[in-house]
Amino acid sequence: MAKNSTGRHTELVSISDGLATAEIAPTAGGALASYRWWRNGAAVDWLRPADSAAIDRRDAGAMACFPLVPYSNRIRGGRFEFAGRIVELPTAPDDPHYEHGHGWRRPWTVARHEAGAVVLRYRHTADSWPWSYEAEQEIALTDGRLCVTVAVRNLSDAPMPLGFGLHPYFPSTPWTHIQAPVSGMWETDAEVLPTRHVPPPAGADPSTGFDVSEVDFDTVFTGWTRRARISWPEQGRQLDIEAEAPLDFLVLYTPPGEPYFCAEPVSNITDAFNRPGGEETGRIVLAPGQKLSASVRFTPSLAV
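Given the sequence above, the corresponding structure tokens read:
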């Protein structure tokens, strides 16, 4: 990937509102590469920043945040039935359930770029996913806050199943704490596919909060109020997350020993297209021509 004379990657798109800056990598799955404040000349990263190697290889999974369309998480075996049609997605040994759909795998185009906002688009032509659709992200900064709006429009002439959301990565320290009101969670099998809906564990209930370093989750939580707060008490900072319906589920991924964790606002549980339950799974059916959108706002604060 080309760099200019300052060493910056020329394919990154930058936005700023004077307090915050964000860099976006349209060709790397429409991902955010960074979102940071500047304080006394030093960067305060609110999302895990991508390094140069990740940017060079256009690796959305190593970025700060990437979009989830047309569904979140896994579909068992990459296969499901919808409206009498069998859909089989292109799985691989290292991706046996075609995780997270298309958006993070494909380049997006810049539809609009202003000082503090950028709009990206991805258009999918029917293939093994037999529906055409258009996805759009508006990424905007206002007074230091980040707002990401994801929209999907069904361009096909038949109803399309849908799920969507965001996959942000946050810095994790030994004292990082998260609190998010929820009412239940899905236990999973060895392939991280849901097996049983249960109450959250008493010792690691997001509703009361916990230190990220003390849990090992790759879990969909239900009954989420679409609010969460992450704090780094030793650094005197916190980040409030506010999502809109239908992003009614929260995925927490807290890999032990890693310097990051994920708190993902999403509209569907894992493998929603293969499970009965409609609203309980979050599976949406988008009519021909119908468009659906939702925003996620990230509001940081620093101790004085």
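Residues 52-56 form the longest helix (5 residues). Try to locate this feature in the token string yourself.
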